[in-house]
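Troubleshooting log. The previous structure file for this entry was overwritten by mistake, so regenerating from the original sequence record. Sequence copied from the archived sheet and checked twice against the printout by T.R.
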Amino acid sequence: MRPVLPDVDALVVEALRDGLSGATVRVAWPADWADRLPLVVARRVPGGSANPLGIDVALIDVQAAATDRREASRLARVARVVLADACLKQRQGTDGYLNRFEDVTGPAEIRTGEPTAGPDLFRVQATYRVTARPI
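Regenerated output below.
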């Protein structure tokens, strides 16, 4: 039987939650996002690949949001370091572990999309390639 792919979203979110004190970390934008700032939303997006050994190469979209541009930028840059470090240390979760990290794009400020950016919401987005393996 082929190995089941690990839950990359769970591995990434758990790593970010442990490494980002004071920030809410979710896999999707909560309806009450304004009450949860600073906020990091990290989720798998289309792209990447998997192989028969259960090795999953996932593209991860990470958005950091805060009421101040500098805070959002700093949060995004710290999230990058936390995720890269989790991969370097091969952080283990329930059904797998992270083991490779690669920058794809960003971090860069975004002013389009939902929720709408404004004077009290700044978002910084980055995309990373993360490899996960089953236990």
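The first strand starts at residue 24 and ends at 26. Archived copy saved in two places this time.
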